[in-house]
# Entry
Amino acid sequence: MNSTMKALVIGVFALLVSISMFAQTPEVSKLAVTEPLDVGGTILEPGTYLIRVLPSNADRDKVQITSEDRKTIYVTALTVPHALAPREEVNTTFVYYPAGEGMPRALRTWFAKSPTVTEGGHDIVYPEARAQQLARMAASRVISYRADTAVADLDKTELLVVTPEAKVETYTPAPMMSQSSPEMPNTASTTPLIALLGLVSLGGAFAIRMARL
# Structure
């Protein structure tokens, strides 16, 4: 194989790897906790953690909070998409519910620093009793699930909404809206990326074949 063809093959391979990594960019952030923090009903002690998304189904995800080296899992919590309002700008990574007397503050929404992966954020879902407390303190609606729901069943359990007046309603997913063009429908898809991967793969195969001639 001559040097030019060898360089071409290496270049195509590198491009394939980079595109693959781009397509699978994870949503992950560093979470610095300076006082006890409630995340989905689990209390985190002060320290530095990683939070990342575990894709679940169309209207909900799980988030996992681990040690920085990812060897210890502290929390697996349910979230639902936080749909951005028209022209809403996000200037923070974490939004919190206020702390109540004798109770820690709670994580409300996480906006991952991966705009190529998701638009909007992740609203943390809480057990119903805790959701009632948060809804009252924050004067806001809080998404919840029944207290006896097992972690393994969070993907399919019925979701509820607790109002500041302690009413319990059925949760209805909000439509996601593009932050950059709120007036236009979100028509982005993975089709162009798949097509590009196909073309690059064909190019790589052709280069390897030519190198063997």
User: Anything to note?
Assistant: The first strand starts at residue 28 and ends at 33. Residues 191-212 form the longest helix (22 residues).
